[in-house]
Design a protein that fits this description.
The protein is an alpha+beta fold. It folds into 4 domains: 2-223, Rossmann fold; 229-336, Translation factors (Elongation Factor Tu (Ef-tu), domain 3, Beta Barrel); 348-449, Translation initiation factor IF- 2, domain 3 (Rossmann fold), CATH 3.40.50; 454-572, Elongation Factor Tu (Ef-tu), domain 3 (Beta Barrel), CATH 2.40.30. 29% of the residues lie in helices and 31% in strands. Strands 3-4-5-2-8-9-11-10 form an 8-stranded mixed sheet, with helices on both faces. It has an 8-stranded antiparallel sheet with strand order 17-16-22-13-14-21-18-19, with helices on one face. Strands 27-28-33-30-29-34 form a 6-stranded antiparallel β-barrel. Helix 9 (355-367) links the parallel strand 23 and strand 24. The longest helix has 26 residues, at 424-449. It is elongated.
Length: 573
Amino acid sequence: MYIRQPIVAVLGHVDHGKTTLLDFIRGSCVAAREAGAITQHIGATEVPIDAIKKLCGKLLHGKKFKVPGLLFIDTPGHFAFTTLRARGGALADLAVLVIDINEGIMPQTEESIEILKKYRTPFVVAANKIDAITGWKKVDGIISQRLNAQIEATRAEFDEKFYKLVEKLYEKGFSAERYDRIRDFIRNVAIVPISAKTGEGIPELLMVLIGLAQKFLEKELMTEEKEAEGTVLEVKEEKGLGTTVDAIIYNGIIREGDKIVLGGKNKPIVTTIRALLKPKPLDEIRDPSDKFMKVKEAHAACGIKIAAPNLEETFAGAPLKVVKNLEEDIKKINKEMSINIETQDEGIILKADAVGSLEAIAFILKERGIPIRKAEVGDISKRDIVEAQTNSNPLNRVVIGFNVKILPEVEDKQDVEILTDKIIYHLLDKLDEWLEKKKKEIEEEQRKKITHPGMIKFLPNYTFRVSKPAIIGVRVIAGEIRPGQKLIRDDGKPVGKIKSIQKEKKSLSKAIQGMEVAVAIDGATVGRQIKPGQIMLVDISQSEIQKLLDMELTPDERDVLEKLIKIKRGVHE
């Protein structure tokens, strides 16, 4: 048994500095190379404990660690979380949530928080871009010393932005505070103010991460010298090697010549490793075509490129295992690939590139109260369209696809909306927009079927024709009017039926509150049933009044409806 380094994922909103942070850590580690520094893995950057100690300097002076270092997943953003799972949980042991202190929590940050909650992953907030605070001076030392060296106005601006962030995190269910003020790291989320650009605060961030791993994750990080387990990061074509997979190994040892079983699109794939490849160290890549070196074996935790036959059918996020007992291992892979998503008879169709992505999106949809009928890995097919079409609720006739293609067989959408995107929060934004638009369309259709409340005033001096039909100018005081509706006076006496509505010689299908229009009324005579200044209401049947009472109406429409009910009561009494 030995302790492996924790896998650290870096999440956050686009442009908040995830890549800059990783680049700074990588660059500093290359510079600190003589301290046993950096190994560049496939999809991961390993920062050994010696390099961390050198970067942290006095912060870790005299401290001893069992944890051998940190392994950062290089795929910044949600991909690392949503696609990569280990035994149905998150692949990452720890996460860094990068938030621009000046912009605060943005849509993608919210989504990252949802995903961290789902997988219950401990995380640290890197409050980035402190260098952009007005008047900020770069000073050595820890955050308290650096703040004391700033002018009062800069300190005040920092405090305002910092505590706004604390407040927003509290709204999301987390108690957060500056790392140097926290006593209980289990109950509080540590915030480390940093600048990924200048490097300020990065030693403190590494110190907090290594400290948390050492204190709370030792048991989880124990790994045996046994058959490796991992997760596919990417499937790639490599010149001279054919189809390869980049994978993260989170447990055990993988060797050249090992038989492995991986999750496949239709069924598990069994193959034998031809070659294991690692990139050359960063400062040794002279020729991009010669960027890999062969290795005989690799130990968890690490990233590795695997060359083997028949890898075409595997996909990002698929589990991978070195075979010990083929039958049992295939069962295990099938179990890991089983999708744990609650589906219903009526709901939207969800497609994604990997099991983890499916589960992460399904989790967010559930939080929003959106039902799912089917959730599957793979491209959008004709079958998905047919299934979506059978939903009785038109709001569920939608197929959403994350990082997938629409197959050519999908020619006729059959009144089904297809939404795709490569960024989760963009995809969910598209879904929200479509649902909003669709709801309005449905409401409009229902409004046409049900007579809605409406009240008009006969404008004095606007009689265009006295009768057969009477044509008069009116103002819509509240609600709406449409052709075909019957009108009554405010004393309950019938007026006639709206034959047509016109404005500037154009016929209208309706007129709404505030509009002044000409209406033709069959059965009415000016001077007899109606007079200038007269208030008239749309006549609504008792059964429709009942339906309207259960519908969402504007305050004005509700007032008119109540007035109509009183008028009708008065007439019957």
